Amino acid sequence: MNNLLTTLLFSSILISTLFSTSSYAQTQNCSAFAFRNNQIFATCNALPLLNSVLHWSYHPDNHTVDLAYRHGGVPNTDWVAWGLNIDGTMMVGSQCLVAFRNSSGEIHAYTSPVSSYGTQLAEGPLSFNVPRIGAEYSNNEFIIFATLELPAGRTSFNQAWQNGAVSGQALTAHVQSGDNMRSFGSVDFANGELGGGGSSVTSRQRRRNVHGVLNAVSWGVLMPMGAVFARYLKVFKAANPAWFYIHVACQTSAYIVGVAGWGTGLKLGSDSTDIEFTTHRNIGITLFCLGTLQVFALLLRPKPDHKYRLYWNIYHHAVGYAVIGLSIANVFEGFDALNGQKNWKRAYTGVIIAIGAIAVLLEAFTWFIVIKRKKTDSNKHTQNGTNGTVNPYGNGTHQQA
C-alpha cells in the first residue's frame, strides 16, 4: 500500500513538473521572440489555434494598444487576418487587420470591417481608429504591426483570427471547418489574459453537422442498402414478399430523413447567402425531385401482370440507380465543401466500400443460385420430356395407334 501511495505521489509530481516545464517553455518561446525592428512588447500569448501568437503593450494613459499579430506556417500566397469583435463573438462583425502579398510582391496591410460571411475583406475604416498598421513576411510567417485606439471604457474584447488563399488579387474564403471555425476567443489587454476559443461549437456549425449526418445516413447509406435488399433478397423464394417491404421501409425512411437533411441545407443557405456551394446545392435539389418522383411512382405501381409493368420497372430502376449514384457523389461534395472533416469522409468511404463489397459477393452468389436453378429446371424439363415420349398421352398407354 505504501509503495502504491509513493508511486502515485511521484507520478503526480512528475506530471506537474512536466506541465510546468512545458508552460514555462511556451512562455519563454513567446517572449523571447526577436522582431526585426527590435520592437519589444510587454505581453504575449500563443493563440490556441492556427499557429498564431499575439504580442501587445497596453497604454492606459491614452487607452491605446501597440500589437503584433504573428501567423506562422502559411505560404506567402495566403492572407492572414486578426480582429476585434466589439459586439459579437466570431468573424462576422469583426474589425480586422489584414495582410497579404499583392501583385507587386509587397506585403500589403490594411483594415477591413467584416459584415457578412461572404466578405472578400475589402479595405475600409474600422469602428475605432487605427493610427498605424504595417506587415512583413519571413520564414513562412506573416506579422501584422498596428496601433489601436480602443473603444472607451473597455479593455476586454472578443477576438478572431483567420487565414485563407489569395487568387489573383482576390482574397478567397477561409476553410469552413476544423480549426478555422474555432479560431475565436477573448483578450484582455489590461491583465494579459486570453479566454474561450478552440473548443466551442456554434449553432451554425451544429446545423452543418446535423445536415451532413442526416444526408449521409439517408441518401448516402439507406438508399444503397434498400437497393441491395431489393436486388438480392428477392432471389430467395422464402424472402418473398418480405424483400419488398424491407425495400420500401429502407427507401421511405431514407426519403423522410433525407427531406429533413435537405431542409437543414435550405436553412443553412438562407443564413449564409454569401457562401454558395453550387454543385452540392444543385445535386441536392435534383435528388429531392427524383426522390419525390420515386415516392409517387410507388403509389402508381401497376400489378405484376399489367401490360405497363415492364415500362414502370425500367423507369423505377433507372431513376433509383441515378438517385443512388447522385447521392453518393453529393455526400462527397459535402465533405469537400467542409474541407476538413477527413475522419467523416474516411468513415463514409469505408461504409460505401463495405456495401459495394457485399453487393459484389451477393451478385456472384445470386448468379450461382440462378444458374443452378435453371439447370435444375432444365433437368426436370428433360425428364418430363422423356416420359412424354414413352407415354405421350398420359394415362392412355393402352390406346392403339
From TrEMBL:
<keyword id="KW-0479">Metal-binding</keyword>
<keyword id="KW-0249">Electron transport</keyword>
<feature type="binding site" description="axial binding residue">
    <location>
        <position position="316"/>
    </location>
    <ligand>
        <name>heme b</name>
    </ligand>
</feature>
<feature type="transmembrane region" description="Helical">
    <location>
        <begin position="242"/>
        <end position="263"/>
    </location>
</feature>
<dbReference type="GO" id="GO:0016020">
    <property type="term" value="C:membrane"/>
</dbReference>
<feature type="transmembrane region" description="Helical">
    <location>
        <begin position="347"/>
        <end position="370"/>
    </location>
</feature>
<feature type="binding site" description="axial binding residue">
    <location>
        <position position="247"/>
    </location>
    <ligand>
        <name>heme b</name>
    </ligand>
</feature>
<keyword id="KW-0813">Transport</keyword>
<keyword id="KW-0408">Iron</keyword>
<feature type="compositionally biased region" description="Polar residues">
    <location>
        <begin position="381"/>
        <end position="401"/>
    </location>
</feature>
<keyword id="KW-1133">Transmembrane helix</keyword>
<feature type="transmembrane region" description="Helical">
    <location>
        <begin position="283"/>
        <end position="300"/>
    </location>
</feature>
<dbReference type="InterPro" id="IPR005018">
    <property type="entry name" value="DOMON_domain"/>
</dbReference>
<feature type="domain" description="Cytochrome b561">
    <location>
        <begin position="175"/>
        <end position="371"/>
    </location>
</feature>
<dbReference type="GO" id="GO:0046872">
    <property type="term" value="F:metal ion binding"/>
</dbReference>
<protein>
    <recommendedName>
        <fullName>Cytochrome b561 and DOMON domain-containing protein</fullName>
    </recommendedName>
</protein>
<comment type="function">
    <text>May act as a catecholamine-responsive trans-membrane electron transporter.</text>
</comment>
<keyword id="KW-0812">Transmembrane</keyword>
<feature type="binding site" description="axial binding residue">
    <location>
        <position position="211"/>
    </location>
    <ligand>
        <name>heme b</name>
    </ligand>
</feature>
<feature type="transmembrane region" description="Helical">
    <location>
        <begin position="312"/>
        <end position="332"/>
    </location>
</feature>
<feature type="transmembrane region" description="Helical">
    <location>
        <begin position="212"/>
        <end position="230"/>
    </location>
</feature>
<dbReference type="InterPro" id="IPR006593">
    <property type="entry name" value="Cyt_b561/ferric_Rdtase_TM"/>
</dbReference>
<dbReference type="Pfam" id="PF04526">
    <property type="entry name" value="DUF568"/>
</dbReference>
<feature type="binding site" description="axial binding residue">
    <location>
        <position position="280"/>
    </location>
    <ligand>
        <name>heme b</name>
    </ligand>
</feature>
<keyword id="KW-0472">Membrane</keyword>
<keyword id="KW-0732">Signal</keyword>
<feature type="domain" description="DOMON">
    <location>
        <begin position="50"/>
        <end position="164"/>
    </location>
</feature>
<dbReference type="InterPro" id="IPR045265">
    <property type="entry name" value="AIR12_DOMON"/>
</dbReference>
<dbReference type="Pfam" id="PF03188">
    <property type="entry name" value="Cytochrom_B561"/>
</dbReference>
<dbReference type="InterPro" id="IPR017214">
    <property type="entry name" value="UCP037471"/>
</dbReference>
<feature type="signal peptide">
    <location>
        <begin position="1"/>
        <end position="25"/>
    </location>
</feature>
<feature type="region of interest" description="Disordered">
    <location>
        <begin position="378"/>
        <end position="401"/>
    </location>
</feature>
